[in-house]
Each structure stands twice: as structure tokens, then as C-alpha cells.
Write a structure and sequence with these properties.
alpha/beta; six-stranded mixed β-sheet; three-stranded mixed β-sheet; 7 helices
């Protein structure tokens, strides 16, 4: 029996050999690269458009709730009314800096406030209120002064345990040099350095000059404090002096290295 012919063996070999991929020349490779770049660019545009729509156009990420924490004298409704947050607007568009500025301007009692977005639907106000360290009497009302010397509120009733400032400067070189505003700041520094127990018992801080501040305590006691210099040292000395002489009515820490106390 005759074997397969040469032509037949060639045909069989070609049938068993895997087909080679078509050759892609330089032009084809450049075309494929451009296509990929175009597709990538289109994908980026579509993604950016979808993101923008979700942030600005959809109802998914809009401001729906406002919360307030940290208030003491102020009420949450006062804070939220002054903030005028744009409820219903896209949360991403809420200007938190402008809201914080508006709150400090409309409510001087606010010392600082953090306006924070809480995704997906909320803005929160974290408020820190000013605390009065002195009161300035004005007619039948009282002006509250904080530890920075800021007069931030006028109230009808004096808050408890906040001393009254009696600023009665004499016509001295100290007054001409420093002025009443400087003397007020000195009184604020004195009040801020008082030990906790003494601060709670101080009814008034009387200032007549830069270096003459006198504390009027409960039960008719007085403390000659002097200037605002060395306040923390004077506070420690006064605490020790009052423990050593609990029945004394007058204390002098104007020179903290040589304190004194007496019954009257």
C-alpha cells in the first residue's frame, strides 16, 4: 500500500500547526495606544461627572440636620438661628468658615466654634463660650469681662461667684501712663490668678492704680494684692497664709516674699 504523498504530508502538517497571530505594525500599535488613552480619558470624565452630580446635584448628600454642643448660657436654638446654615443645600457647598465668622460676630459670648461637616447629611457646631472673670456694673446691669479683657455681654443679674470690678483710679502718674483700659486688663490678670477657693469668696476687686489691687472677700476680709506681677506666686502664698491664719481679716501678699496677716 502506497504511503501518503508529499502534498498530503504538507497538508497534514499545516493542519496540526497553530495559527500565527496577525502581525501588527508600528501604525497599529500607535492606534491601539491612542484608543486606550481616549477610553481612559472618557472614563475619567464620566467618573468626575458622576461624582459632581452626587455631591451637588443629587439628594443623597444634602444638609438635613444641624447639631450644637458646648453651650452653657447660650441655647442651641440661639446658636443655630445665628448660624443660618443653608439646610437643603449640598453639604459640600456649606461654607463652614463663613458660618463660624457669623456666629462669633452675632454672638460675642462665643469665644471659639468649630463648624464640622458630618457626612452624609449633618453639620455640627462645637461651641466654647467665654467665661466671665469680672463684672463691671453699669446702672442696674452688669457687663461681663472674660480672661482676655473682652467685654462680651450685658446681663440683668450678676452671675454667682464672679467678683465686681471697682475701677476707681486716682489722678496719678500710673493712670496718665497706662489709662483705664490698661488698669482693667491688670484687674483681669489678678482675677485670673486667684486660687479657686479665694476666687469663689471674692466679692470685688478694687483697683486704684497699676500696682494697687485689693480683694474684698466674704465676711469682711480683704487682701492687699498689689500689682498683677507674680500672680501665681501670690496665689500660693495667699493660700498658705489663709491656712496659717484662718481667723485673720486682712492679708497682704503685695510682696510675696514678705507676706503678712492681721485680724483687722
Amino acid at each position: 500500500m502506497a504511503g501518503p504523498t508529499t502534498a498530503q504530508r504538507g497538508e497534514a502538517g499545516r493542519a496540526d500547526t497553530p495559527a500565527r497571530p496577525p502581525h501588527i505594525g508600528p501604525e497599529g500599535r500607535r492606534l491601539t495606544g491612542r484608543t486606550r488613552l481616549v477610553l481612559a480619558a472618557v472614563g475619567l470624565v464620566l467618573t468626575a461627572g458622576a461624582t459632581a452630580w452626587v455631591l451637588y446635584g443629587s439628594s443623597w448628600l444634602r444638609l438635613e440636620r444641624v447639631t450644637t454642643t458646648g453651650t452653657d448660657v447660650l441655647t442651641r436654638s440661639e446658636v443655630e438661628a445665628a448660624a443660618a446654615a443653608p439646610v437643603g443645600s449640598p453639604l459640600i457647598s456649606v461654607d463652614t468658615g463663613a458660618i463660624a465668622d457669623r456666629l462669633r460676630q452675632k454672638l460675642p459670648r462665643i469665644d471659639s466654634v468649630d463648624v464640622v461637616r458630618s457626612w452624609p447629611h449633618e453639620v455640627s457646631f462645637k461651641v466654647t463660650e467665654r467665661k466671665p472673670v469680672l463684672l463691671v456694673e453699669k446702672g442696674k446691669k452688669f457687663i461681663e469681662v472674660d480672661a482676655k479683657g473682652v467685654r462680651f455681654a450685658t446681663v440683668d443679674k450678676a452671675p454667682p461667684h464672679v467678683p465686681l470690678l471697682e475701677l476707681t483710679p486716682d489722678q496719678s502718674a500710673s493712670l496718665r501712663r497706662f489709662g483705664s483700659d490698661r488698669l482693667l486688663r491688670e484687674a483681669v490678670r489678678v482675677a485670673g490668678d486667684l486660687p479657686g477657693k479665694v476666687a469663689g469668696e471674692t466679692e470685688a476687686v478694687r483697683v486704684t492704680s497699676y500696682d494697687s489691687a485689693v480683694l474684698e472677700l466674704t465676711r469682711g476680709r480683704t487682701v492687699m494684692w498689689g500689682s498683677s506681677e507674680q500672680g501665681p506666686v501670690k496665689a500660693r502664698v495667699l493660700t498658705a497664709l489663709m491656712k496659717a491664719s484662718p481667723k485673720a481679716g486682712h492679708f497682704d501678699v503685695s510682696a510675696p516674699t514678705a507676706p503678712a496677716s492681721s485680724e483687722s
